[in-house]
């Protein structure tokens, strides 16, 4: 009953990749599998895009491992630092390094992600959660993603 939905969405709130995890699982370990499944086809010939221009995430995704992964992929990271990480970096002084780049203007677009989650949760097939098996629940999530794409 406590299944979590993790997804990557485009700038219009349309789901690109959907993954389900148990409710007690953390958010940040799921980012690498999400990014590995990302493939956006092009209108013309050519390979599909497998790397976003920027990744907007909440404070749960602010870790050194995630920032390194995104830096190696050459993806712009727009993730705020939690206050405990800021305090730890300041406590270390000059050895703490510079704060990671953060663009608050781009981060304002993160509400698209939250609205996409709310759109999923308002759908009756997912809101009632009568499904016992995660595979059936994921089918409902994918079906909702398809209806969101068809609406556009």
Characterization of the model:
There is one protein chain. With 152 residues, the chain is of the alpha+beta class. It has one domain. It contains seven helices and four strands. The protein has helices spanning 31-36, 64-72, 83-91, 104-107, 111-122, 124-127, 134-151; strands at 4-9, 15-21, 54-56, 76-78. The strands form two sheets. Strands 1-2 form a two-stranded antiparallel ribbon. The chain has a two-stranded parallel ribbon with strand order 3-4. Strand 1 (4-9) and strand 2 form a beta hairpin. It starts with a strand and ends with a helix.
Strand content: 5-15%
Largest sheet: 2 strands, antiparallel
Structural class: alpha+beta
Silhouette: globular
Uncertain spans = none
Number of domains: 1
The average pLDDT value, as a whole number, equals 88
Main sheet: strand order: 1-2
């Amino acid at each position: 009953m406590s299944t979590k939905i993790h997804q990557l969405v485009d700038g219009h709130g349309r789901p690109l990749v959907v993954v389900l995890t148990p409710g007690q699982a953390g958010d940040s370990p799921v980012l690498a599998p999400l990014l590995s499944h990302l493939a956006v086809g092009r209108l013309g010939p050519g390979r599909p895009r497998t790397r976003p221009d920027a990744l907007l995430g909440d404070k749960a995704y602010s870790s050194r491992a995630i920032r390194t992964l995104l830096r190696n992929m050459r993806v712009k990271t727009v993730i705020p630092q939690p206050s405990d990480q800021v305090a730890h970096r300041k406590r270390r002084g000059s050895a703490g390094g510079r704060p990671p780049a953060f663009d608050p203007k781009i981060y304002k677009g993160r509400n698209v992600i939250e609205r996409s989650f709310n759109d999923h949760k308002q759908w009756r097939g997912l809101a009632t959660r009568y499904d016992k098996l995660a595979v059936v629940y994921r089918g409902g999530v994918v079906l909702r993603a398809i209806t969101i794409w068809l609406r556009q």
